[in-house]
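Researcher: Next entry in the queue.
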Amino acid sequence: MPVYYGIRLELHPDVYEPAEDTFLLAETVDVKPGEMALDVGTGTGLIALLMARKAKRVLGVDVNPKAVELAMKNALLNGIGNVEFRLSDLFENVSGRFDVITFNAPYLPGEPKKAIDLALVGGKTGREVIDRFIREVSGYLTENGRVYLVQSSITGIEETLNLFRRVGLRAEVVAKRHFFFEDIVLIKASRPW
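Model: Structure for this entry, 193 residues:
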């Protein structure tokens, strides 16, 4: 059973296994004690479980029912009780506001065929899921809340930064790793004041 950052994880072939993009998020996200956090596209639950070390409560959501089930198992396996997982297409089953919202977004162009594809394929252009997330996210952010979005250079980083600005959030690339034919970037967005 693999261990990431001290968290033991069961894996499942239909659920995205933590990889470089996950690690970039894990190593950069900043959660302060007592904050409320939301992990969109939680997968195995790793990011939610890591945030639960400091956060008061964490909600992890995923559109893949197998991911939700696996994340719940991983929370039990690690004895982490201040986290909840539920099935949700982005914010569909989410209410309230959060200090930290993370999303390791699907960004490959195409149509999902299998459950695992939901973690990778972001629609016809690869941007559909990212764009919908950005348009909706500010409604779930506290006044001083932060958004951490992982994406690839394949899907247009400038477009993402510009869309964040259009919805009233200040955004910047705070971490980047280069792999083969792409850069994986972590974009942090918050209210401009």
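Model: The chain has one domain: 3-190.
Researcher: Noted, moving on.
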